[in-house]
């Protein structure tokens, strides 16, 4: 099972704008990180799960990692956003690992992100131990 990572979609105004940004790259989208994840080999075939408004809202499959001339690293992503069932996730700096067991499932055909709870409600119910 591949390992995944989470990252805040900090420049996205909405999930739609994140999708537009990803799809504007024909072959691959590049995210920059200061350090290569120690477990990067396990992440090939995994996904980067996007956090928007304190919830995981979608994922982009990871193609690989590539060092830049300035020493930073590119996270090479497929230029698509796969919607997932909304799951509360606290904001954090940088990225964090996410195991397959903890990753939310993809939305089924015909299921929309609107079918999921609003992130604020999901977060409060999770805090109370109800979801």
TrEMBL record:
<dbReference type="Pfam" id="PF07370">
    <property type="entry name" value="DUF1489"/>
</dbReference>
<dbReference type="InterPro" id="IPR008320">
    <property type="entry name" value="UCP032025"/>
</dbReference>
<protein>
    <recommendedName>
        <fullName>DUF1489 family protein</fullName>
    </recommendedName>
</protein>
């Amino acid at each position: 099972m591949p390992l995944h990572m989470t990252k805040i979609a900090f420049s996205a105004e909405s999930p739609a704008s994140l999708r537009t940004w990803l799809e504007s790259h024909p072959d691959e989208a590049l995210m920059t990180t200061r350090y290569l994840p120690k477990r990067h080999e396990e992440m090939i075939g995994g996904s980067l799960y996007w956090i928007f408004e304190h919830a995981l809202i979608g994922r982009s499959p990871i193609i690989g990692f590539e060092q830049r001339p300035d020493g930073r690293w590119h996270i090479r992503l497929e230029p698509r956003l796969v919607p997932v069932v909304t799951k509360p996730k606290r904001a954090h700096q940088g990225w964090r690992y996410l195991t397959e067991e903890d990753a939310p499932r993809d939305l089924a055909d015909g299921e929309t992100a609107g079918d999921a709870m609003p992130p604020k409600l999901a977060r409060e119910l999770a805090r109370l131990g109800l979801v």
